[in-house]
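Project standup — Tuesday

K.O.: blocked on the structure for the chain from last sprint. Re-posting the sequence here as requested.
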Amino acid sequence: MESTAFHPLPDGRRIAYRHAPGAGPALVFLPGYMSDMAGGKASAVFGWAVANGRECLVLDYSGCGESEGQFADGTLTRWRDEVVALVAALCGPDVVLIGSSMGGWLMLLAALVMPQRVRGLVGIAAAPDFTDWGYDADQKAALTAGKTVFEDNPYGPDPTPIYPGFWTDGEAQQVLDAPIALTCPVRLIHGQADADVPWQTALRLAEMLRSADVQVTLVKDGDHRLSRDQDIALLLRTIEMLP
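H.V.: unblocked you, prediction finished:
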């Protein structure tokens, strides 16, 4: 894998990324909440791109992975703007955004900022609007009051924090309550055994996208991570077959 580099932003933040040159459209992988570019899916996409001569960009949002900053300061708006800035600085004119879980929400927000550059979207257990449907009334009340909420983390020993700034910003960035003005090809992969994001979310997203070229693939025994060998193979086939 290409070595990690750092892109400076005007406010001094340095965002860690890996970039491989190649033919376009450039593949841009957006990790999920508290994930980073060292994850299995990001690494698989980057490795496939290098092997097939495709341009590819993977990155860590500020406060995540190798990037500078505090995770508690992260919001969808902040991370979206980082994605858009790195695409503008590093990628060719056309991109395919690939978003995992929260990254699937970010991919929509980034695509809406730069629709003229986006030639396709691939969502993996995409979780748009999860600040709305992902928390109960008590959790929402605590977040509204400015308190941090901690959730059980099935993927590690420490609980997952949800900070009030992230939640408030997410409530303002919801996309599923109106048609989404994106017309590029979209592919959505979702496991029906996903315990974190209901698979019906993919169907709702498909309904709200303006694009006529939207396909949803349901993996009956697939969990939220979709990181098994067969899941990764499905993801790579999906990317390869995008028009």
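K.O.: great, moving the ticket to review. The chain has eight helices and ten strands. Strands lie at 5-8, 14-20, 23-30, 54-59, 95-100, 118-124, 149-151, 160-162, 186-191, 214-219.
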